Amino acid sequence: MADVFKNYIDGAWVEAKSGKTFENRNPANRHDLIGLFPASSPEDVNAALQAAKKAFARWRLVPAPKRGEILYRVGELLRRQKEEIARGMTREMGKILKETRGDVQEGIDTAFYVAGEGRRLFGETTPSELPDKFAMSVRSPIGVCALITPWNFPMAIPTWKLFPALLCGNTVVLKPAEDTPCTAVKLFEILAEAGVPPGVVNVVHGRGEETGAALVRHADVKLVSFTGSAAVGREIASVCGQQLKRISLELGGKNAQIVMEDADLNLALEGALWGAFGTTGQRCTATSRLILHRDIKKELTDMLVARAEKIKIGDGLDESVEMGPLINQAAREKVHRYVQIGRSEGARLLIGGSIYEEGKWIDGYFYRPTIFDQVTPSMRIAREEIFGPVLSIIEVQSFEEAIEVINGTTYGLSSSIYTRDVERAFRAMRDIEAGITYINGPTIGAEVHLPFGGVKDTGNGHREAGTTVYDIFSEWKSIYVDYSGKLQKAQIDNVE
Length: 496
Ligand code: NAD
Known about the structure:
Elements: E1 7-9, E2 12-14, E3 21-26, E4 29-38, H1 42-59, H2 64-80, H3 82-93, H4 97-117, E5 124-127, E6 133-140, E7 144-148, H5 156-167, E8 171-175, H6 181-194, E9 201-203, H7 208-217, E10 223-227, H8 230-243, E11 246-250, E12 255-259, H9 265-277, E13 287-293, H10 294-308, H11 329-345, E14 348-351, E15 370-373, H12 380-383, E16 390-396, H13 399-406, E17 411-412, E18 414-418, H14 422-431, E19 436-439, E20 455-456, H15 470-473, E21 475-482
Parallel strand pairs: 7-8, 7-10, 8-9, 10-11, 12-13, 12-18, 13-16, 15-16, 18-19
Antiparallel strand pairs: 1-2, 3-4, 5-6, 6-21, 14-15, 17-20
Helix pairs in contact: 1-7, 2-4, 2-6, 3-4, 4-5, 9-10
The chain binds nicotinamide-adenine-dinucleotide.
């Protein structure tokens, strides 16, 4: 008998009203059924939103430092259960244990960081232009927030959104990805145990097109915070545009690592391996293009191929495994389709390019680490997000050309350059069009106390994490207190 999981609405675990469910299976072994989850309808979404709306009236009045204390307790519980959650996450979405532990750690870091912000939700005071008048600006909560998240960071991404939203005094309904509902259930058990009052946090499971879309278009939702693909982001944005709803979007990437001829090649090698094949290439910040200066291209390519060929593929629960499966059958088909596209465009396949079905791994969605050489910037494999373990090598003749190539995609999330030349490093920091730039580090490795997000088609200008996330989840209000006892007209009474 499969385990049956529920939605969390108004402080209680409840089934979908229709009784319908969907399956969640282990991508390393499709015969391993993790459980059945509610396939929520618009009716379930409405119930969650009504609970959140009711709870908002009280939660917005809880002092921010108190809200922060609850989040601190959430952080402590996450820390206590880190290993168990990480193991469940690996079973659910395939990435190796080292990485799922990191994913939970990101949630813990966010909890402690955001908890402290409860005492630092600063506004501004400023002199008024008129006598006997006081002026200040404060942050106010927005209301009910809809949070829609992808499967590749099942703990980190929901917590990036949830904790700041709650700290600011909002209430929330989360719709987690269909492939990772179990980690969301764990998080909500912890939120309840930590003392988050009923209705303040709610989770509804289900498919994006049904459950997610119902959430987005509901009139009681005041803000949508979405992380996922650019295609879905565009759809959601058009609905929110019509309804004049606040929306923050964190979308795809086509990130690149540049390696100049003066770089430490061993360091660049480690960065490229981790950036391209970590999380099986399924990170929004994954390195999918490697831009190499011609003088070091052959040497670094040979080093890379030798190492990538030896990457141990398998079930991420085995500590010796270095790369897990892709998330599902559709993802593997998509990756394989792009490999065919790369070949037909004339790129040279150096390694991989095929499904990995050896030994006991026949029942998982494994794919070999894949490297293409002789890729040109106009090829589709150099422009479109593949979201798998596929790396495209592009040769350049100069620093200027490297910058032109790195900027030559519609996305702008993460970027990296390996060089020992301080002048080039600073030019790269200035000229690369991306939300994140690493010098002598891979394209992955964001920390929770810095802004996270991208330029161009990667988003709509917001930044999660850091101190910037509070601009997503709060409204600014300007307040004037006139204690002169008379009508004073700004811009009129004080002008000679
Ligand atoms: P996705 O867009 O398919 O799904 C994301 C979420 O949206 C899921 O919960 C899904 O159920 C929901 N959804 C789908 N259709 C919907 C609709 N019509 N209305 C409302 N909700 C809907 O993305 P994915 O495959 O889960 O994740 C991979 C993508 O996420 C990649 O493009 C990756 O780059 C991106 N991503 C971006 C960041 C970032 O911070 N920029 C982080 C992680 C992942």
